[in-house]
Amino acid sequence: MNKVFADLPVTVFEAMSQLARDNNAINLGQGFPDDPGPEDIRRAAADASVNGYNQYPSMMGIPELRTAISDHYGRWHHLTLDPMTEVMVTSGGTEALTSSILAVVEPGDEVVVFQPVYDSYLPIIRQAGGIPRLLRLEPPEWRLNEEMLRSVFNHKTKAVLFNNPLNPAAVVYPREDLELLARFCQEFDTIAICDEVWEHVVFDGREHIPLITIPGMRDRTIKVGSAGKIFSLTGWKIGFVCAAPPLLRVAAKVHQFLTFTTAPNLQAAVAYGLNKPAEYFYDMRKDLARSRDRLTKGLESIGFPVLKSQGTYFLTVDLSPLGLNETDVAFCQRIVNDYKVAAIPVSAFYEQDAVTSVVRFCFSKKDATLDTALERLSDAVHRRKR
């Protein structure tokens, strides 16, 4: 058996979701909304399924979607992409990341990875023969600094994986951090693989800045996006890969032997969605920010120290000031069993030297779902301290 995968545990997302099912609990752990998604985009998919083409589409993605992706990033980020040579559609963001990693990493290459780290990164790096070099980000700021980058970048550093906005910490990185990372990538001739699936889910007037737009990074960055996150249609699994032609050509060869192509009706609907006016995306952010604020206010009112969420579907709570004498894992197990609310321990996003006091909650839920969860959690802090 392949040890890279045979020895992996069940993902924390599936484990906590199963506990939620077993306990008939509210699932604020896994990151998915509890509404069906935008009706007009779903209807566009239905129409494309009934009246459109349902055989194999182009391996690279239907031209309409590739053009829509290029136009969308041109409008939002002033990023000029050739839709035919610099844009590829994949079956979700995870497949996009896998294609990108396998396209770049060879045996013996070192890959810089920031913890907390999404769980798919490390096994794919290792399957490619790469060597992860882990850097520890810490609450409450979760920021990059020159000392940490200098400790791992060297002549063997082939790639860096960078998630912005950052899941689970809900940080939207400022230009200062991006320019610092870009400087190291250029100094050590390193390719940046950027997981930017949360790019549109940013709050309080913040701007997502793609690393590919930082000077010197255009030809050494692979940008990954996800329609599932942009449109709250997580089950559709439509991902994007954007990169200069020499990088995209190799990623496309990997994609060819992973999924080859993606449902054409969903691609047509995503093309329709990406062409929606800017007001749609701003309204989506306002709605999610309102849910964030509802859960934040409720958690703070019952004694939870909430770390400010700048983006994503998530907010985090640092348990350390509460004196509960339990780890994040024990806390999450207790609240799902005793209070019927599921959350995610952030230590699960670390392979070594984990932060063990932070818990992630998903707020992309209906008001009634959030309110019921808050009612159930109202005694979770006080009873433990008594």
UniProtKB/TrEMBL annotation:
What is the uppermost EC class here? transferase
Q: Where in the cell is it found?
A: Cytoplasm
What InterPro entries does the record point to? Aminotransferase_I/II_large (IPR004839), Kynurenine-oxoglutarate_AT (IPR051326), PyrdxlP-dep_Trfase (IPR015424), PyrdxlP-dep_Trfase_major (IPR015421), PyrdxlP-dep_Trfase_small (IPR015422)
**Can you list the GO cellular component terms from the UniProt entry?**
cytoplasm
Q: Name one Pfam family in it.
A: Aminotran_1_2
Query: Which N-terminal residues, if any, form the signal peptide?
Result: none
User: Has the keyword Transferase been applied to this entry?
Assistant: yes
Give a short account of what the protein does.
Answer: Involved in the lysine biosynthetic pathways. It catalyzes the transfer of an amino group from L-glutamate to N-succinyl-2-l-amino-6-oxoheptanedioate (N-succinyl-2-l-amino-6-ketopimelate) in a PLP-dependent reaction, yielding as products N-succinyl-l-2,6-diaminoheptanedioate (N-succinyl-diaminopimelate) and 2-oxoglutarate.
Tell me which PANTHER family the record gives. FI04487P
Q: What is this protein called?
A: Probable N-succinyldiaminopimelate aminotransferase DapC
Q: Which organism is it from?
A: Bradyrhizobium lablabi
Lineage summary:
Bacteria, Pseudomonadati, Pseudomonadota, Alphaproteobacteria, Hyphomicrobiales
